[in-house]
Amino acid sequence: MIIDISRLLNAHTPTWPGDEPFSYQLTWPMSETGSVNVGQFTTSCHTATHVDAPYHFRDNSLTIEQLPLDIFVGNAMVIDVSTKAKITLDDVENVDLSDVRRVIFKTNAWTDDEFPTTMPLISPDLGSFFLENGIELMGVDLPSVDPLDSKTLDTHHSLLQNGVHILEGLNLIDVEPGIYKLTALPLNIEGADGSPVRAILEK
């Protein structure tokens, strides 16, 4: 069974305030070409479901096409933290992570078509814990792993320092906790600070 955990991209897709919204338009309709429809789209690299490259928040760091693809394919543990105002070590210390390299937090804090105004806090302390337990990717159903008004991006930096990559903007409404196979491959965009992905889980 395949579960699509990507957010739909259209004219109503919520975008980080002030960032480039998603737009698709038909450049050449079949009525003009006589053979094909050809469209184009514009968007921020961080709209809807996306991967952050380290370059997004640290100059002279890895860009999206430089990231190893195996990070984004493989077993992932979905952990339900939907009752939590803050996600901390207490939420993962007793979870068996021996068979996974990826952790996905289901917060249910972004379940509609509006950009959220509040989100659960994610403790930067998770970075070192994940390193100790072999976790290389953290995913969230939030637009960011840091507070919306953060300028220091403590959790972003902690995850990077501990070798943990970031997948944001997931749609986990219909996903139960447990182990799945995740596929969430970023586009091969040279020099980019992030990339939209089509993320799926397989049970």
Automatic annotation (TrEMBL):
Coiled-coil intervals: none
Pfam families hit by this protein: Cyclase (PF04199)
GO molecular function: arylformamidase activity; formamidase activity; metal ion binding
Domain of life per record: Bacteria
Catalytic activity line of the entry: N-formyl-L-kynurenine + H2O = L-kynurenine + formate + H(+)
EC number: 3.5.1.9
Purpose: Catalyzes the hydrolysis of N-formyl-L-kynurenine to L-kynurenine, the second step in the kynurenine pathway of tryptophan degradation.
NCBIfam families for this protein: trp_arylform
Protein name in the entry: Arylformamidase
